[in-house]
């Protein structure tokens, strides 16, 4: 599950299951029997937490290719370990960045090989599933552009900037619609896609991708998972669900465990945090074994508050009453974490005893 320190005072679970998700889950259940295979999109920063395990029952024994999208935002070693972990549980796995043309080309080749080896018929339909905002529509649109031979200027610049970031493709271990000329709808907010639609990815062999809305589980057990999903944009921003101050506190307190050694200090300094102040030391070397103890919790909360004050001072904006704009600072922390501006992060990590199933 998601790592990281949970701010005190939050409930043990969170529920964000709008009406359109319930309808979407029913539609997916009705359409999956017509599909030949499944492309499951996850967020490479939290591959386990960004899965909806409830989809397993709907997918059943259909061939599944797991895609860790946004691999450019996660540490390469962590992504590699996750691919090994997933492949050992019987599903083929690929890590990609939907903004990179060469990355999508390798995904396309892997998917065509994956489907052609199983379905030697006139065409196959592949359902693309996942929770909100993991990049399903971006992946679909990228694959569609490849099939049409269209490359946008943004893709070209992204490819040049990230030419060395190639995805890994690991095969599974021994264990085991109608076409649409339009692309899939994309957006930075979770829950943009609300209807199922089929999009042609390839003419020869004929492969159609069924774009499905992002669906979360009705209730997310564990506030750590809820915080990680919201911090990465998979759950909508809402103070009614998770106060922004708590989200920023979680982000700041998680940097030292989510980033490679030494990178947390660089990230904090880049936002204007004065690392010479002893009050912020708990953010650099948090004692995970002490989380849950009042003294350690208080030290982390105070460290996060001091850091936010420094960040607000760097921004130079004022909040209500003329003081530092702490809400603006909190928004800067969360957006910087989300976008990758602070560096690569890993909010999940394969560990002994973790039970997960990517069934082939």
TrEMBL record:
GO terms for cellular component: mitochondrion. Residues 150-159 have a biased composition (Basic and acidic residues). Residues 150-183 are annotated as: Disordered. Residues 23-218 form the CP-type G domain. Coiled coil: none annotated. Keywords: GTP-binding, Nucleotide-binding. GO terms for molecular function: GTP binding; GTPase activity. This is CP-type G domain-containing protein.
């Amino acid at each position: 599950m998601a790592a990281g320190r949970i701010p005190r005072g939050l409930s043990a679970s969170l529920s964000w299951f709008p009406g359109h998700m319930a309808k979407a889950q029913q539609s997916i259940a009705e359409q999956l029997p017509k599909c030949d295979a499944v492309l499951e999109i996850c967020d490479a920063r939290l591959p386990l937490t960004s899965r909806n395990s409830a989809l397993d029952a709907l997918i059943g024994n259909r061939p599944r290719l797991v895609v860790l999208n946004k691999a450019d935002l996660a540490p390469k070693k962590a992504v590699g370990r996750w691919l090994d972990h997933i492949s050992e549980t019987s599903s083929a796995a690929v890590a990609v960045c939907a903004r990179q043309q060469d990355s999508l080309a390798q995904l396309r080749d892997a998917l065509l090989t994956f489907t052609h080896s199983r379905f030697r018929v006139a065409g196959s339909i592949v359902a693309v599933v996942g929770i909100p905002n993991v990049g399903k529509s971006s992946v679909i649109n990228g694959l569609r552009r490849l099939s049409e031979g269209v490359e946008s200027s943004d893709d070209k610049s992204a490819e040049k900037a990230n030419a060395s970031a190639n995805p890994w493709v690991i095969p599974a271990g021994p264990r085991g619609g109608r076409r649409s000329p339009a692309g899939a709808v994309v957006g930075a907010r979770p829950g943009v896609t609300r209807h199922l639609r089929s999009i042609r990815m390839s003419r020869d062999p004929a492969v159609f991708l069924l774009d499905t809305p992002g669906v979360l589980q009705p209730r997310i057990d564990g506030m750590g998972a809820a915080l990680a999903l919201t911090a990465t944009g998979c759950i909508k921003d809402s103070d009614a669900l998770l106060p922004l101050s708590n989200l920023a506190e979680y982000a700041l307190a998680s940097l030292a465990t989510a980033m490679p050694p030494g990178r947390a200090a660089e990230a904090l300094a880049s936002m204007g945090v004065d690392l010479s102040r002893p009050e912020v030391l708990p953010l650099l070397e948090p004692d995970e074994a002490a989380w849950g103890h009042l003294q350690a919790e208080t030290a982390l909360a105070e460290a996060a508050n001091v850091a936010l004050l420094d960040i607000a001072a760097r921004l130079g904006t004022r909040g209500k009453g003329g003081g530092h704009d702490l809400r603006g600072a909190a928004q800067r922390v969360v957006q910087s974490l989300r976008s990758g501006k602070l560096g690569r992060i890993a909010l999940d990590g394969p560990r002994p005893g973790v039970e997960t199933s990517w069934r082939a």
